[in-house]
Specification:
With about 210 residues, the chain is of the alpha+beta class. Helices cover about 25% and strands about 35% of the residues. The chain has a 4-stranded antiparallel beta sheet. Strands 7-8-9 form a 3-stranded antiparallel beta sheet. A hairpin with a 2-residue loop joins strand 8 and strand 9. It is elongated.
Length: about 210
């Protein structure tokens, strides 16, 4: 039985927004695109996400939209007697919604996430960076890690250092590169997230 923080896959628990059944756990680790705190390094444990299907909120009102969710497991807890009573009362008072929820449990759902990083671009390298990114984007495999992205930058001698991203919007940079990479929860290569899409944009704040 897969268990973390006394929360068991396939069992009821207290999620961040309501009472739910745990579907999957995903461990995330620090990577180069994270703002890594002092004392931590790439490859160190970051947090565990839990995907879940929510039946009701903490007032016992059935969740009718966006019933498949995810959150950091640190915001979750086991189902104690107080919340078990709320759940049982909600099931009793909303039998149609509970029947719908039982059918929903059989559906396969996935969570999608993304990361965004920024790079300052010298004005005289704007065109070259755009060409570099086009080559990198086309050469990446269907699924790739952030390390693969960095390595491609080195292979093609990218005009900017992809190893040193900024983690926040560059308000003061006249020109910057915005890179978004998307992934599906559960797609990992060891301790690294496997991305399946990359979108970039050269932003010129002088125009």
């Amino acid at each position: 039985m897969d268990t973390k923080k006394n929360i068991v896959i396939g069992k009821w628990f207290c999620a961040d927004l309501g009472i739910a059944i745990a579907e999957r756990f995903h461990d995330f680790y620090y990577e180069e695109y994270n703002n890594i705190p002092e004392g931590k390094k790439v490859g160190d444990y970051k947090f565990t996400a839990v995907e879940y299907k929510q039946f009701c909120d903490y007032e016992g009102k059935p969740t009718r939209r966006n019933r498949f969710k995810e959150c950091n497991i640190e915001y979750c807890d086991t189902l104690d007697k107080e919340w078990e009573k709320v759940l049982n009362d909600s099931i009793k008072n909303h039998p149609k919604e509970y029947e719908s929820f039982k059918k929903f449990l059989k559906e396969v759902k996935h969570t999608y996430g993304d990361i965004i990083v920024y790079y300052e671009v010298p004005e005289d390298k704007k065109l070259q960076v755009a060409q570099d990114m086009e080559r990198i984007q086309k050469s990446l495999p269907e699924k790739f890690t952030y390390e693969d992205f960095i390595n491609k930058g080195e292979e093609y001698k990218c005009s900017i250092n992809l190893k040193k991203p900024h983690f926040d919007y560059l308000m003061d940079a006249p020109v910057y590169l915005r890179v978004m990479m998307g992934y599906t929860y559960g797609d990992f290569a060891g301790k690294r997230v496997l991305f399946d899409r990359l979108v970039y944009k050269i932003c010129d704040m002088q125009k």
